[in-house]
C-alpha cells in the first residue's frame, strides 16, 4: 500500500483567524457549526467549509462571501474526508473553540491560529488525512522580562483582564 505525504498551505489574508478540525456527518455539521459561531460572538464574520466523504464534495456556508469561498477552496485543497475549515474575522479562536469542540459531531481540532498555517496531509488509495499542523514559525529564544511585560500589557489591552 503506497502513501504520499504533502504539505498544504492554508490560504488566508493577514488578520484572518483559522480553525482546522475534523468532524462527522457534514451534511448537518457545516450549518450547525455556523449557527453555533453566530451565537458565540456577536458580529463575527466567518466562512466554514467541510468535506463530505460521500458524495465527495465540499459543503460551505457563512456570513462573509470572501471567507466562505476561501474556506471552501482550502477544504477542497486539503481533501480529507470530514475535515473542516473555519475562517473568521472579529473574533479570536479562544472566543469560539469550546463551542466548536463541544459540538457532538466534532471529533478533533488540529489547530486554531491567525499565524500562517501548513497542514501535513497523507494520501493513500482510499483518500487523504491530516497528520498534523504547522502553526507559524519555530521559537528561537526565550522571552526577556521586557517581552513578558509587553505580552501582559497586550493581553490587558485586548480585554483579557480581571479588572
Condensed summary:
The chain is an alpha+beta fold.
Overview of the molecule:
The chain has 163 residues and is α+β, with helices and mostly antiparallel strands. The protein has one domain: hypothetical protein tt1634 (3-Layer(aba) Sandwich). Helix content is 31%, strand content 35%. It has helices at 26-40, 65-78, 93-101, 145-157; strands spanning 4-9, 17-23, 45-52, 57-62, 83-89, 106-113, 117-123, 128-135. It has a 5-stranded antiparallel beta sheet, sandwiched between helices. Strands 1-7-8 form a 3-stranded antiparallel beta sheet, covered by helices on one side. Helix 1 packs across helix 3 (93-101). It is globular. It starts with a strand and ends in a 6-residue tail after the last helix. The mean pLDDT is 95.
Instruction: Report the biggest beta sheet as strand number plus sense, adding barrel if it closes.
Output: 5 strands, antiparallel
Oligomer: single chain
Principal-axes geometry comes out as globular
Mean pLDDT level: 95
Major beta sheet, strand line-up: 4-3-5-2-6
CATH architecture: 3-Layer(aba) Sandwich
Roughly how many Å apart are the termini? 58 Å
- Assigned CATH class: Alpha Beta
Features:
single chain, 163 residues, alpha+beta, hypothetical protein tt1634, three-stranded antiparallel sheet, 4 helices
List the helices and strands and how they pair.
Blueprint: E1 4-9, E2 17-23, H1 26-40, E3 45-52, E4 57-62, H2 65-78, E5 83-89, H3 93-101, E6 106-113, E7 117-123, E8 128-135, H4 145-157
Antiparallel strand pairs: 1-7, 2-5, 2-6, 3-4, 3-5, 7-8
Helix pairs in contact: 1-3
Amino acid at each position: 500500500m503506497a502513501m504520499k505525504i504533502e504539505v498544504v498551505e492554508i490560504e488566508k489574508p493577514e488578520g484572518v483567524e483559522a480553525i482546522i478540525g475534523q468532524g462527522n456527518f457534514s451534511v448537518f455539521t457545516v450549518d450547525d457549526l455556523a449557527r453555533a459561531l453566530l451565537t458565540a460572538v456577536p458580529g463575527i464574520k466567518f466562512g466554514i467549509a467541510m468535506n463530505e466523504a460521500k458524495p465527495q464534495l465540499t459543503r460551505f456556508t457563512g456570513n462573509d462571501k470572501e471567507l466562505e469561498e476561501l474556506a471552501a477552496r482550502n477544504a477542497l485543497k486539503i481533501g480529507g474526508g470530514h475535515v473542516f475549515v473555519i475562517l473568521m474575522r472579529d473574533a479570536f479562536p479562544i472566543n469560539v473553540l469550546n463551542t466548536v469542540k463541544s459540538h457532538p459531531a466534532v471529533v478533533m481540532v488540529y489547530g486554531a491560529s491567525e499565524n500562517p498555517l501548513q497542514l501535513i496531509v497523507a494520501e493513500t488509495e482510499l483518500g487523504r488525512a491530516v497528520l498534523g499542523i504547522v502553526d507559524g514559525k519555530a521559537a528561537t529564544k526565550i522571552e526577556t522580562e521586557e517581552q513578558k511585560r509587553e505580552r501582559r500589557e497586550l493581553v490587558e489591552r485586548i480585554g483579557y483582564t480581571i479588572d
